[in-house]
Automatic annotation (TrEMBL):
Family: Belongs to the glycosyl hydrolase 81 family.
Top-level taxon of origin: Bacteria
EC number: 3.2.1.39
InterPro entries linked to this entry: Endo-beta-glucanase, GH81_C, TAT_signal
GO MF term list: endo-1,3(4)-beta-glucanase activity; glucan endo-1,3-beta-D-glucosidase activity
Domain Glycosyl hydrolase family 81 C-terminal: 356-679
EC class (word): hydrolase
PROSITE patterns attached to this UniProt entry: GH81, TAT
Keywords tagged on the record: Carbohydrate metabolism, Cell wall biogenesis/degradation, Glycosidase, Hydrolase, Polysaccharide degradation
Protein name as it appears in the record: glucan endo-1,3-beta-D-glucosidase
PANTHER family: ENDO-1,3(4)-BETA-GLUCANASE 1, GLUCAN ENDO-1,3-BETA-D-GLUCOSIDASE 2
Length: 763
């Protein structure tokens, strides 16, 4: 579908500051519009189109479709899967709404390990008695809660489901409500006649009605809530235990119905402190209690002094212990530990510097081929761009000006080929009806299932930002920067309720991490595999914010990077050993779902790729791994055991040292000397990296020492390293146009010229 000029002119103000002007030349091509020097297609040009999201109310259909969320199955599927809200699951069906408290299942695999499942099962089915429910529609979405409309015609039947809530709130326009069980239940005593307490398959559930509700048992597995005249509602809950204190607590707060949820963030650049505030708005269904119960995930409560002594009963969940807090608001704080775009030159006195020169010469010679390696769609092309940018770093720092100029020219040319919109095969398409940008040729169902946009565009945003550090005029808005802004808007729009793009498309503020599936396919809910590629995307936001002077975008990227890093530490690596089930045998999780976690990949169960997919791309920002060097050693040691099992199963992979560059760099963050000694210059290299960048990375850490994340600075782009002898190296980069004085938290100061990387060494 093409927009008219009038339509586009009406839309452009809504796109926000930083967008390029719609040029008159745009109308020369009916299916595209100019953004700066670039052009975005308004048509898929015969390619597979973006899917529609028909299951939304009229009000929600006026907003960009919220793809890649924990509830996205609602808007795409005629028969939506269960919503893994945690601690509860909820599933709209033709018969009504199912509500369940999942239990742990340990599932052995052919890999000789186990997966941990928390399936939606033994659910309560809640439905009207006066009419049949209609098809479920998304009727509202705030930052961690959704409203589901299941009415039919003029009859209302709605539900509110929220992350962390022990309740589901249901509202009905007329008649009574029926509760059906999978098996007969034991009724537990309750002092309050509004509450029906049942033990179903060992799990205590509670149903809370309005004053005057009459509970009638119609059959061994069926109860009827006879509702009084007036507003009809029912609150369904699962209890973590059936103690009197827990029953009283859940009853007290059940009628404080959540009506809105909102997250806000702030970054204190002077201290590196990143603060997140979670706020719930409620309405009392009856009585005066408006304080909700919020279920805090481990990354919310672990080490959080602000909630110590205030946490109540605990649910055993897929994400570990979820603890209840009676409050409308809570705060978490984290620390940003910095990165710089590249590391300085390796001195001629460093070991193997001759190997570095030779590797760099070969890589520059093969650079054009490296841009093509892997695939021709946005993912592999983005990886190719970052691959060459990291080679460019090495050329510049090691004094190869001719190589640097060649690489920079190749990079700009490739970006311009895509962004110009003149190639009928390689281009970006903006689908206005859904509010998204997709790239062709399609890779990994990024169009037809809306998958992985943050992975794909993160590479582009970061690579072009780093080109912009060298040539800000080329990357400026009004030239190629407008197209970068378009990709940023697709994955990181911060305004809620817009028609052009949804709020933080892939990011789940309450879970603290991203989701990769656009349509939420499958019974286990949404999922994310490559957490490290998500973090690479947020790195790109930080750098693009620095290049463009956009402090709000820079701080958004900082918040997302720090928040998702903390979630990864808990749910992918379990660094604090409070999340993984004791039966889980692996050191890491490679695939996190709404309802399970597993040690596998979407394409192969080979151990090196299973672990490596949550490490790559390893660049200067990957020093977040270094905060726990003992875990790096443990993870690499467990990988050897997994490879042994793989071989015992009769499995082989060629090359047997696949991604050895990734593991060498990962190990170097804990022990640089050992990693360098174990790296084979002629071994395998992952297609998003190069031998020269790998060797420069290793030699840099040997020279500077492992990253020291205990020291912060009052700027965005900085890093500190510490050698075994205690000597530190301080780095800072100035992306601005004025000199910068950087103050480190240990008292060291560093003067940084505009556009330069500065270094200081000392104790």
């Amino acid at each position: 579908m093409s927009l008219t000029r009038r339509d586009l002119l009406a839309l452009m103000p809504a796109l926000g500051a930083g967008w390029g002007t719609v040029h008159t030349a745009a109308w020369a091509q009916a299916d595209s519009v100019a953004l700066g020097a670039g052009r975005v297609s308004l048509s898929p040009r015969g390619n597979a189109p973006v899917p529609r999201a028909p299951h939304r109310t009229e009000a929600m259909a006026r907003r960009a479709a919220p793809t890649n969320q924990w509830y996205s199955t609602l808007i795409f599927s005629d028969k939506p899967e269960a919503l893994h809200a945690l601690p509860l699951t909820a599933k709209p069906t033709a018969a009504g709404l199912e509500v369940s408290l999942p239990k742990k299942a340990v599932v052995p695999t052919e890999r000789r390990d186990v997966e941990i499942h928390y399936a939606h099962h033994d659910a309560l089915l809640i439905a009207p008695t006066a009419f049949e429910p209609g098809r479920a529609l998304l009727a509202g979405a705030s930052d961690w809660a959704v409203d589901i409309a299941m009415g039919r015609g003029a009859d209302r039947f709605d539900a509110t489901v929220a992350h962390g809530s022990p309740y589901v709130w249901l509202r009905i326009g007329r008649g009574d409500l029926r509760v059906r069980l999978k098996s007969p239940a034991e009724r537990l005593s309750s002092a309050d006649p509004r509450a029906l307490l049942l033990r179903v398959a060992g799990t205590p559930y509670a149903l809370y009605g309005p004053t005057g509700v009459q509970w009638e048992q119609a059959a061994p597995t069926e109860w009827i809530a006879r509702l009084p005249a007036g507003p009809g509602y029912l609150v369904a809950a699962a209890l973590p235990d059936d103690s009197a204190a827990t029953q009283a607590l859940l009853l007290r707060h059940a009628y404080a119905a959540v009506t809105d949820t909102r997250v806000s963030w702030s970054v204190d650049r002077a201290s590196g402190r990143v603060e997140t505030v979670f706020t719930a708005t409620t309405q009392a269904l009856e009585g005066s209690e408006t304080m909700p119960l919020l279920g805090l995930y481990p990354h919310h409560w672990h080490g959080n002094a602000s909630v110590e002594g205030r946490l109540g009963p605990t649910y055993a969940t897929l994400r570990g212990p979820m603890k209840l807090l009676a409050d409308k608001r809570f705060t978490t704080t984290s620390r940003y530990t910095g990165f710089v775009p590249y590391w300085p030159a390796v001195p001629d006195s460093s070991p193997r510097v001759g190997d570095l020169r030779e590797a760099l010469k070969a890589d520059v010679r093969n650079a054009h081929r490296m841009l093509q390696q892997g695939g021709e769609g946005p993912y592999w092309q983005g990886k190719g761009l970052l691959r060459l940018v990291k080679m460019l770093d090495v050329c510049e720092q090691q004094g190869d000006r001719e190589g640097a100029e060649r690489l920079l020219g190749l990079l700009k040319k490739r970006v311009e080929e895509w962004f110009s919109g003149t190639d009928r095969r390689r281009f970006f398409h903006w689908d206005q009806a859904m509010g998204t940008v997709v790239g062709y040729p399609e890779e990994y169902f990024a169009v037809v299932q809306m998958n992985d946009h943050h992975f794909h565009y993160g590479y582009w945003i970061r690579a072009i930002a780093e080109i912009g550090l060298r040539d800000p005029d080329w990357a400026a808005r009004g030239r190629w920067g407008d197209m970068v802004d378009l990709l940023v808007k697709d994955i990181a729009t911060t305004e809620r309720g817009r028609a052009d793009f949804p709020f933080l498309r892939t990011f789940d503020p309450y879970e603290g991490h991203s989701w990769a599936s656009g349509i939420g396919l499958g019974e286990w809910g949404n999922n994310q595999e490559s957490s490290s590629e998500a973090l690479n995307a947020w790195t790109g936001l930080i750098l693009w914010g620095e290049v463009t002077g956009d402090a709000a975008l820079r701080d958004l990227g900082t918040w997302m990077l720090v928040t998702e890093t903390e979630a990864v530490r808990h749910y992918w690596f379990d660094l604090h050993r409070i999340v993984f089930a004791p039966e889980y045998r692996n050191a890491d999780v490679s695939m996190v779902f709404g309802g399970k976690y597993a040690h596998n990949t979407w394409w192969i169960d080979e151990p090196r790729q299973i672990t490596g997919i949550n490490l790559l791309p390893i660049t200067t920002v990957s020093t977040y791994f270094a905060s726990h060097p003992d875990y790096i050693r443990r993870n690499l040691a467990s990988l050897k055991d997994e490879q042994k099992i793989w071989a015992e199963r009769g499995k082989r992979f060629d090359p047997p040292d696949i991604w050895q560059d990734i593991f060498a760099k990962y190990g170097a963050l804990a022990d640089p000397e050992a990693a360098l000694a174990g790296w084979d210059r002629w071994g395998a290299v992952e297609a998003g990296d190069s031998r020269s960048h790998t060797l420069h990375f290793l030699l840099s850490l040997v020279a500077m020492g492992a990253p020291d994340t205990s020291i912060t600075a009052d700027t965005t782009l900085y890093q500190v390293f510490r050698r075994p002898d205690g000597q530190r190296t301080y780095l800072a980069f100035n992306a601005g146009r004025q000199p910068l004085r950087v103050r480190f938290s240990d008292g060291r100061q560093l003067e940084v010229p505009p556009g330069r990387l500065a270094r200081a060494d000392g104790a």
